[in-house]
């Protein structure tokens, strides 16, 4: 179906984009892979689309001190090929299909805030942060404060997500993302991203676990992280830590999978993600 | 609003509504009906075209987003490669689909060809698994995919022997 009528602007700088977004009824257009389907179904009818494709400040992946900056308009293909952290590359590679990955962007995926989004899980595990720019200036938010509900974020309507920042990969660290796909849609029934840092003796000194497809929003499984830190990440210790992966979460239940099944799959895919992260951290 | 872009190598200038989808623009404004509309959810891939050499779903993109860019549809596929590499006027991918009977109803074929073109330009010699993963954005309800996987690999072989990418650019003939 054709969307309702709207105006279209294509700013060439971030400042222009912020100004265009300040107009009533304006909405940002990145890859369009989530927004256009909604507009075609007429679930969304913005008055003006502000296409970000010419905004150079929003593109590219570069090291910034202790962090790596990934511009919001970086495509899933480019994240899969050039981002740090295996978990992030794997999440991008497992997002949608070839065509979707070409147009879809990391900023769009984070801002869309799908409760089953793949990139959010990886970014949660990595302890990423986002930078938002609005008429009042710039602010930084930790990614786990960003997802507030299904398709809802802590960004204001007049803010542009400029970039995602992830910590640089340190020595002894490893990460992975494992996903159980719903076969027809390709979306995650369950997705778990794990990040570990091990010291010289193989002891876990830092852990991050991001979970998607399971809760109200993608979330960070803090209890599991705490149970992993200080251990040697043995099978028994991993088992115990994963026992807490859906702690305090209202686990989703739908036609595709019951809450019980999802909780069980969190254990399985969590175990695989942690094992892969551990193997990398040691190599 | 006026847009200018290149479609199948020709410069095109048209006045379009911002809400026009690229697929409708191609089919209705330019009469390029080879590109199909197979679903309403951007999942089937029948509308796949090349945008600056890469596969995208033209049902999930606005025509205005293609301003200043290069679009190739199935009608322009064969002209990507020189005549001596075409087989009876077909791109090696089209010829391989024809020869291996990689279609029954044919509705998904234009999209399959465009995605396969992108896949082979990135990976000249894909395994079965790599073809299946590479074409996961294209659904076929007839063939069960087997002959499609085979056809893509056959086309890959033809192109490797010709020392060409499916987009017509020169590349090393055979991989180690
Ligand atoms: C067939 C299909 C399969 C898919 N499968 C998956 C999957 O398996 N896993 C998955 O995670 N996703 C999947 N997706 C969604 C895909 O990952 C999208 O690319 C992504 O969710 C949105 O990114 P986009 O760049 O396309 O954003 P758009 O669709 O352009 O925008 C999405 C939302 O974000 C806002 N926005 C965009 N950029 C910014 C910015 N810089 N600052 C502030 N707000 C912004 C827009 O206003 C809009 O509200 C699929 C999509 C399709 C069509």
Helical proportion of chain B, percent range: 25-40%
Return Rg of chain A in Å: 19 Å
Structural class of chain B: alpha+beta
**So what's the overall shape of chain B?**
globular
Number of helices of chain B: 6
Could you estimate the helical fraction of the residues of chain A in percent? Answer: 25-40%
Would you write up a description of this structure?
The complex is a heterodimer of chains A (283) and B (176). Chain A contains ten helices and 14 strands. Chain A has three domains: 7-51, Uridine Diphospho-n-acetylenolpyruvylglucosamine Reductase, domain 2 (2-Layer Sandwich); 56-167, Uridine Diphospho-n-acetylenolpyruvylglucosamine Reductase, domain 3; 174-282, CO dehydrogenase flavoprotein, C-terminal domain (Enolase-like, domain 1, 2-Layer Sandwich), CATH 3.30.390. By secondary structure, chain A is α+β, with helices and mostly antiparallel strands. Chain B folds into two domains: 2-76, Ubiquitin-like (UB roll), CATH 3.10.20.30; 78-162, [2Fe-2S]-binding domain (DNA polymerase, domain 1, Orthogonal Bundle), CATH 1.10.150. Chain B has helices at residues 22-29, 74-77, 92-99, 109-122, 128-134, 146-162; strands at residues 2-7, 10-15, 48-51, 54-57, 70-72. In chain B, strands 2-1-5-3-4 form a five-stranded mixed β-sheet. In chain B, α3 crosses α6. The radius of gyration of chain B is 16 Å and the shape is globular. Chains A and B meet through α2 and α5 of A and β4 and α4 of B. Flavin-adenine dinucleotide sits between chains A (27-35, 37, 52, 72, 95-96, 100, 103-105, 107-109, 111-112, 114, 117-118, 155, 160-161, 186-187) and B (42-43, 60).
List keywords for this structure.
heterodimer, A: 283 residues, alpha+beta, Uridine Diphospho-n-acetylenolpyruvylglucosamine Reductase, domain 2, Enolase-like, domain 1, four-stranded antiparallel sheet, 10 helices, B: 176 residues, Ubiquitin-like (UB roll), DNA polymerase, domain 1, 2 domains, five-stranded mixed sheet, 5 strands, globular, binds flavin-adenine dinucleotide
